[in-house]
Amino acid sequence: MAESSTRAWTRPHDWAEVVLGVVAVLTPLWADTDTTTMWTMIVLGALIALDGLLSLSMPGLVYGEGVQVVLGALLFVAPWVMTYTALDVAAWSSWIIGALTAIAGLAALPVANAVHRGGMTTAH
């Protein structure tokens, strides 16, 4: 299992980030949104998915996990900042996807650090 965390395209944390980003991008298809909400979810979701793909392709890229935490936090606060808390499905999607993205980024950070240093000996 430890070996799979050091190889490209095998880390579950990063796959979760890609899926979360895609779900955020697609949320306007089933949620009531206005233009600002739609573009906020599409842009942040695309950035989350793209950064997840980058982290998948380069497992030792530590800053990518930090970016995920920041993007997750931005998506989490977006309903308040972009004023779409009244759009229930979109707001809850932002809060849940944002929190899960930040958690996935934080969980992947120690693994990425270990791979970066070349010291990955146990699965975390």
From TrEMBL:
UniProt keyword annotations, A-Z: Membrane, Transmembrane, Transmembrane helix
Cited Pfam families: SPW
Domain SPW repeat-containing integral membrane: 13-106
Entry's transmembrane regions: 37-57, 69-87, 93-115
This protein's name: SPW repeat-containing integral membrane domain-containing protein
Organism: Amycolatopsis methanolica 239
Lineage: Bacteria, Bacillati, Actinomycetota, Actinomycetes, Pseudonocardiales
